[in-house]
């Protein structure tokens, strides 16, 4: 065997002969000449290079027999001159360490060409005595005066005989110590070498976290998932960082943003390891899990470490650094560092932490219930995981039962579920309820801490400054009390001339400039914290009174929500209120039981909207043609589960896109559709240039699959909340909000489906307000700045907001029949008239068909 050795810097990706991990481009690599097995039996045998990481090569040389030639000095290394100073210094140190270990193992049997260091140039660096039966016990002290003191230790704390087997299996040699030093450099840690050696609790090893996730994912029952967490943290001697463990197990609680999605991660790894992007995307489309895709490739081509010493804290530090990086090259370099440290399993869960989806089918509730009873409720209230853990570790049970509200920490808002009918609303009403105007704005949570104010959005993130900067000037005037409080509200732009709210989305920094006579207005509807006490357990009637007593209304800037008292059984009154709300172009109503408490994250309110009362349909459905399909993610990975729907433009003689629809099909139907569509689809992998000429589609909506012949494509009936405008879609910019498939129209084809011209008419019809005229004596317009005086006087309303009731109950009863007749006559004319082809009952009830 040749004894030639050398080094260079990798020009392309290659594997280390020892650890099978990839040597990345630009990395230092060392090589060793060995006989070429393909020419060994020929008349002219040749040699070939085996490449290694420098640490791996010296670990290999440690195992060599005493008579085998190893690297004794830099003169034995070809290409030494091209190495930079840092690498030269590190290799010289490895050569010295190799000589010392071989001297201890083999004694006089091995000779070294390195001269004995002088006393002036040596300082003691070896702290542990290594005994040997063949060699006398002694301390070997080496290191040049130009280097720092480095303490090298064996795996055992107590000195004992070091055998070659221990060196091989446990890697208790100097290069292992150098690996730990490179770990610190990779993570850009400021810790000392001693602190790097100290791993901390064995329960903080990241590999244990990964195995725990696998266990949680492997069981199906939520009680078993909770039990898995409970068993892990209650193991004998558990002293791990509980907060960091739960922070990883509940990734949605981590507010860090990593600026990486699945396709960006694929691009990073394809560049880093010189993998085929197309193959990665193909695999991702099949699995729907980018972490599984990356690790399947990595295990085949790179391997990863079999044993890893990386800890939860090291991963958290790495993620913190990643959140600060936005450039692609910086992200690639950062990933290359962690890849040198982790196993394949660990890399998979690191990617899942970045994606904020561990894929273990366990939410915060199931995880926190394994910590302590009541922990999840506290977390729901405060969303402050650190505070929850501190209270869970407290032995006082009463502290765990507190609300968990922390001022200036956002609370998950209470939500509303759709209400399909007035009857359903009355069934859920105990005695009385508030019917509040549903404002189509942005949910906002205001925290008042003395004279300081903080605003949080529905997603619990701080609200953008440009949206609330105008409110800062009036909030202190609206809440003059010096006591702390938290209120729930809706923020929207309001026309200062008419007092009417402007459409959703106008709060944007550019859109807002288009409205000169508009101001940001805060409609406050709940108070959940007052004077350092939680009001969440108080009934709504009391919380409303706190608002009225402690808030001063400022016209067009800060107002109480407009609400009406509805008693159980007043079905007609609620129906009239809903119709009147819709007639004035408002979004709908929110119904709240007066005795209900505030439950963060729960959908115990009801929301009544026009499309809900119409069975979840728009004023008219659209029969759209299936033009393309997208791969699903998660459980639907590898299947077509989101579909590109469109219409035919008769003028351009092209098909145009209207919406992407992924709702409406159950799993069985979706499976059947995939089988039917497979022979009718062409895979174009979202490549714009592969689009056929018959379709007009924006680059952002290019699907994974396109139909081969749109004239043979199925037609589906699509319903939604409303028609909207979208620059991404090519059907005159018309799209559908919250689309869902309501019916597969086997009786229709591309010619009888809704055309672009018909779709434009539907859009115009949807803009038309209902023609319902409520001929009720003393009926008041639903002024968004006003509220009604309640009939029974049980609920107090601010003096300035007292109004007459919509009508006395007696008058409503007397006129009920006539009102119903008016509503019946107020149907919208169908665009097809007497020639309408629609036979369904819903359509006939909604539209009239004059001859």
Automatic annotation (TrEMBL):
GO terms for cellular component: DNA ligase III-XRCC1 complex. It is an enzyme of class 6 (ligase). InterPro entries: APLF_PBZ, ATP-dep_DNA_ligase, DNA_ligase_ATP-dep, DNA_ligase_ATP-dep_C, DNA_ligase_ATP-dep_cent, DNA_ligase_ATP-dep_CS, DNA_ligase_ATP-dep_N, DNA_ligase_N_sf. Residues 112-171 are annotated as: Disordered. It is found in: Nucleus. Residues 513-649 form the ATP-dependent DNA ligase family profile domain. Its EC number is 6.5.1.1. PROSITE patterns: DNA_LIGASE_A2, DNA_LIGASE_A3, ZF_PARP_2. Its cofactor is Mg(2+). Its main location: nucleus. NCBIfam families: dnl1. This is DNA ligase 3.
């Amino acid at each position: 065997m040749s004894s030639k050795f050398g080094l260079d810097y990798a020009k392309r990706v290659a594997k280390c002969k020892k650890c099978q991990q990839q040597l990345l481009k630009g990395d230092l690599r060392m090589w060793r000449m060995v006989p070429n097995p393909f020419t060994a039996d020929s008349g002219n045998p040749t040699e070939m290079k085996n490449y290694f990481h420098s640490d791996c090569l010296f670990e290999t040389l440690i195992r060599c027999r005493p008579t085998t030639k190893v690297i004794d000095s830099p003169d034995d290394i070809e290409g030494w001159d091209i190495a930079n100073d840092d690498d030269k210094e590190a290799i010289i140190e490895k050569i010295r360490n190799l000589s010392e270990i071989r001297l201890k193992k083999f004694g006089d049997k091995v000779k070294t060409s390195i001269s004995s260091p002088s006393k002036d140039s040596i300082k003691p660096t070896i702290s542990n005595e290594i005994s040997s039966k063949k060699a006398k016990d002694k301390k070997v002290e080496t290191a040049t005066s130009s280097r720092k003191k480095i303490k090298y230790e064996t795996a055992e704390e107590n000195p004992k005989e070091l055998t070659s087997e221990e060196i091989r299996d446990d890697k208790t040699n100097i290069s292992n110590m150098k690996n730990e030093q490179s770990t610190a450099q990779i993570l850009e840690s400021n810790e000392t070498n001693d602190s790097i050696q100290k791993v901390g609790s064995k329960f903080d090893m990241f590999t244990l976290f990964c195995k725990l996730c696998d266990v949680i994912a492997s069981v199906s029952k939520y009680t078993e998932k909770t039990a898995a967490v409970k068993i892990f943290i209650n193991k004998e001697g558990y002293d791990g960082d509980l907060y960091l463990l739960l922070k990883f197990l509940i990734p949605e609680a981590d507010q860090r943003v990593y600026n990486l999605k699945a396709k960006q991660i694929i691009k990073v790894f394809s560049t880093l390891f010189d993998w085929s992007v197309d193959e990665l995307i193909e695999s991702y489309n099949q699995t729907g899990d980018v972490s599984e895709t990356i690790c399947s490739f990595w295990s085949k081509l790179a391997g990863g470490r079999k044993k890893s010493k990386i800890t939860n804290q090291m991963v958290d530090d790495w993620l913190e650094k990643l959140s600060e990086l936005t450039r692609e090259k910086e992200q690639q370099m950062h990933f290359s560092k962690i890849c040198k440290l982790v196993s394949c399993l660990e890399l998979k869960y690191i990617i899942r932490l970045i994606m904020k989806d561990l894929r273990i089918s366990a939410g915060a509730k199931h995880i926190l219930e394994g910590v302590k009873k009541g922990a999840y409720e506290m977390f729901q209230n405060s969303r402050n995981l650190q505070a929850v853990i501190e209270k869970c570790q407290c032995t006082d049970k009463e502290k765990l039962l507190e609300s968990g509200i922390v001022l200036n920490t956002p609370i998950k808002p209470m939500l509303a579920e759709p209400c399909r009918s007035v009857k359903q609303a009355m069934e859920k009403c105990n005695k009385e309820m508030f019917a509040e105007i549903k404002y189509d704005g942005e949910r906002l949570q205001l925290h008042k801490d003395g004279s300081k104010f903080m605003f949080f959005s529905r997603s619990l993130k701080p609200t953008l400054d440009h949206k609330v900067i105008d409110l800062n000037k009036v909030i202190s005037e609206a809440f003059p009390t010096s006591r702390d409080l938290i209120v729930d509200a809706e923020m929207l732009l309001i026309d200062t001339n008419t007092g009417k709210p402007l459409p959703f989305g106008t709060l944007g920094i550019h859109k807002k400039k288009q409205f000169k006579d508009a101001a940001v207005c805060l409609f406050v509807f709940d108070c959940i914290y007052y004077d350092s006490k939680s009001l969440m357990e108080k009934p709504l009637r009391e919380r409303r009174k706190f608002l009225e007593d402690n808030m001063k209304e400022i016209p067009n800037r800060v107002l109480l929500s407009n609400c009406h008292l509805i008693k159980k059984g007043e079905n007609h009154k609620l129906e009239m209120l809903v119709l009147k709300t819709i007639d004035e172009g408002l979004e709908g109503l929110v119904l709240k039981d007066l005795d209900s408490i505030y439950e963060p994250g729960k959908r115990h309110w009801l929301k009544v909207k026009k499309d809900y009362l119409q069975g979840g349909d728009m004023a008219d459905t659209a029969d759209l043609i299936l033009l393309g399909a997208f791969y699903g993610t998660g459980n639907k990975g590898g299947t077509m589960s989101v579909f590109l729907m469109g219409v035919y433009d008769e003028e351009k003689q092209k098909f145009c896109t209207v919406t992407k629809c992924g709702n409406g099909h159950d799993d069985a139907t979706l499976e059947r559709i995939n089988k039917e569509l497979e022979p009718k689809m062409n895979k174009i992998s979202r490549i714009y240039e592969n689009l056929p000429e018959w379709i007009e589609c924006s680059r952002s909506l290019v699907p994974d699959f396109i139909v081969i012949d749109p004239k043979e494509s199925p037609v589906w009936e699509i319903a939604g909340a409303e028609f909207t405008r979208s620059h991404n879609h090519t059907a005159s910019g018309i799209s559908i909000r919250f689309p869902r498939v309501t019916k597969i129209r086997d009786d229709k084809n591309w010619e009888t489906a809704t055309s672009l011209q018909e779709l434009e008419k539907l859009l115009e019809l949807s803009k038309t307000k209902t023609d319902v005229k409520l001929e009720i004596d003393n009926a008041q317009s639903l002024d968004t700045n006003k509220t009604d005086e309640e009939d029974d006087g049980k609920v107090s309303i601010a003096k300035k907001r007292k109004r007459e009731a919509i009508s006395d109950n007696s008058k409503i009863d007397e006129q009920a029949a006539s009102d119903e007749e008016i509503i019946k006559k107020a149907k919208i004319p169908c665009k097809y008239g007497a020639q309408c082809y629609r036979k369904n009952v819903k359509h006939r009830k909604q539209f009239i068909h004059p001859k």
